[in-house]
Structure formats: C-alpha cells, structure tokens
Predict the structure of Chromosomal replication initiator protein DnaA.
Amino acid sequence: IWTEFLSGLEVNMSDVAFNTWIEPLEPIKLISSELIISAPNGFTKKMIESKYLNDMIGILSIILKKDATIKIILPTDNTYKQYQVRTKPGGQQYFADLTENNNGKKPIDVEKIKMEQMLNPKYTFDTFVKGKSNEFALSAALAVSKNPASAYNPLFIYGGPGLGKTHLMQACAHEIIDHNPEAKVVYLSSEKFVNELISSIGDRSNKKNSAFRNKYRNIDVLLIDDIQFIAGKTGTQEEFFHTFNDLYAQNKQIIISSDKPPKEIKDLEERLISRFEWGLMADIQLPDYETRVAILQAKLNMENANISRDILEYIAMNVKSNIRELEGALMTVIAHSKLLNEPNIDLERAKIALRKVIAENEKRPITLDLIQEIVADQYHITVSDLSSKNRSKQIAYPRQIAMYLCRNLTDSSLIAIANSFNRDHTTIMHGVDKISKDISNDENFEKEINELIDLIKNE
Ligand code: ADP
Ligand code: MG
C-alpha cells in the first residue's frame, strides 16, 4: 500500500518537492482507514499538513476504496512510541503490509490513479435521480456504459448549465471502470484538452507532441466534457478531429457533452458537427417540479440533516433553472440550521436564509426583448421605435446601443438580432462597430453602457 501510495503522490508533484517532503516520511501504522505517518521534524510535518495532506488523503481513499484519514506524528510524540509498541503483537501485520515492496502484486497503474482522482466519487448512476427531463439521456448513458462502442457512438449529451451533464458523464466513466478495471478510460474537459495540446506543441522537439497523440489514441473510452470550449480554436479542432477518427475507426467509445446541440455551437467546424451527429444525441432539459423535489430529497438523505418537507417544496417551487443552484439552496438551509443550532429549522427561518439565493434565481434571462425594453425605457422611447424606420438621432443612437448589447449579452445569431430590429445583418454589424468605437473613445460613454449592462443583468 505504501509503495502504491507514494507513486500516486509522485504523479502530481515535482521531483524536488517529492524528495524533500515525501521521501523522508515513514509509514507507522494503518488502522482500518487511518494511516499514521511519521515526519522527521516539525517543519516537515507543518509543510505536509498545509500543502499535501488533502492530496494524500484523496489518494489513500482511492487505494483503500473508502474515506480515509491521515495523521502525521513526530518521533518525539508519545503517540509514536505507543504505535511502535502496539505494532508488536497483532498489529505487526499492518506495519509489514505498509512497508512491503508490493511483492507479487501487479504494479500499479499511475495513469489510472490520476484518472480516478479526476472523477468525483459522488457522480455515479446511483446518485443520479431520474426524471422526465433526463430519462432519455440517462438510458442512453446506461446503455453505452454497459456496452461501450457497440450501440451508440459517439454519444452526445447536451443541455444547459447545472443540469447534470458532468454528473452523467462521470457516472459512465465509473460504470465502465467498475465493469472492466482494465479499460483505459479518459475523462477530461475540452479546456484541458486544449491546454495539453498547447503545451505539447510548445515543445520544439515534437516528442511531447507524439506523446500527446499516443495518449489520446491508445485508449478505450474517451469522455470530453463541455466540448463547446473548442469552438473557434482551429488547431484544437484539427487535432480533435484526428483523435476522433482514430478512436472511431478502432471502434472505441466516445462520449461528448456540450451546452448546446452541435449545430448551434458557434464556430465549430462542419466536419466535427457531422461527426457528432453520427451517433446518438441526447438532451437534458429543465427538471420538472417532481424531479426537483426528488433531487432535493436524495441530496438531503446524503447530508444527514433534518429539513422538513415544506421547506424542500418551497425550494423546489422557487429554484427552477439549475440543479446546481437547487442543491446550493438546500445546503444554505442546512448550514443555517447547523449554525443557528436549530435542528428543526422552520419554513419562515428557511425563507430568510434563502432570500438571496431565490432573488438570484428570479432574475429574468437576458433576451433580445429584455434588452430592447430596458434600452427603450432608459432613453425614453418605445420598444417599437427601436425597430421602426425612424432615423432621428434620439432614436437611431439608442437603437445602435441596443444592437450592441444584443450582440454582446446574448447568444443570438446576427440574423435573429437583425430580425428583431427589422433590419439586415450588415446594419447590425455597423451599429455594433459604431458603439464599440464610441466606447473606446469616451470613458463617460463607457460608464453609461456599463450601467446599462448592470441594469439588464440585474433585471
Ligand atoms: P452540468 O455539467 O450540466 O453543468 P453537473 O453535472 O455539474 O451539471 O450538475 C450540477 C449539480 O447537480 C451536481 O452536483 C450534480 O450532482 C447535480 N445533479 C444534476 N442532475 C442530477 C440528478 N438527476 N440527480 C442528482 N443530482 C443531479
Ligand atoms: Mg459540467
């Protein structure tokens, strides 16, 4: 275990740090899930506790497959002698197990430990609550995990933020690894893919570049989260295209997530869009009321707190757009109940605790209509003036401001914006450019626009 533990740590540390801080440590004893380690001096102990302990606990938990703790002691501690003595009769076993040289055991797979560290142990199928909004994506994910690369390849999961894409992707990774521990499964966000690619290209020798290729082309299952981040990055799209083709040709499973369906991702190459559409597309929608309550209930069961049903219903009623925020609201109430020492917090108290969270959630989404309403209001004209043919300055200028804001604050296409102003897209581009220039030339105007943006965002 000790050797395995050390190799797990080594992965994420520089050699110098490893030799300075980790090498001198000595394993003393493992009592069920608590590992006792001795540090040569107080300074090392402090360093470990402040910088490395969390990682160490993470790795130990993975190795032991349960929540672990670590205690660092010094040879001068009384406890040290105690442990030494106790190791003698029955405890000896532990000591030996810790220090033995992994004899006869398979060498551990460092990549695998790295991978498992990237997965959130809570994101499994067991903890994923099924509802109308996600049942299709859930069954697709289950089917793919049970039989990778046989049914749906690629699987493309899409949906708005905080609706469970990452949870579902990682559940697939866990499930596949559980069924087939030998499978090489790689999960990462597309941002991380971009960064790794950039650092491999930065290396002139090109050795790293081929290491990058080998890494991503010799795996069994590739899960890329939030693919929308590669939009507009030509080099990355190129590399990803080849990776995709290689894996696909070798009949390896690919699972991708995004906040939008492939077609709607701006600046994504056509050839990638068509690849993504080869397989199965599954969307996750906003959860309905029953699902929201069920998710809160499930979360509550894991938290070991006592929150009444009417509070859960109040939260479910008021937080509708995002499961992450739904959970956040519940955690807020739990925190209040603990801090106020009110194990049976009542609805009135909970409402006070939730005021801020719920106000956030009631904000209107930023739409073209909303922007036009606010701009019209601010400049004392009407919304219909904005799309009229009237060219007087009092109207034309606010109109251009509204165009600029629509372009910058929403995801709407130029065409959609043009339609909403009853203009063609070149007029919109002209308006947007004009306002950008004025902003960069005039600080007061910039302030005015920023205030407008705040208004819109806080509506
Ligand atoms: P996304 O990746 O789509 O932005 P996440 O997967 O990060 O969303 O989900 C946000 C939070 O909501 C996570 O804590 C996740 O566990 C939780 N969550 C989402 N969907 C469900 C579900 N169906 N059941 C239980 N928890 C969920
Ligand atoms: Mg996510």
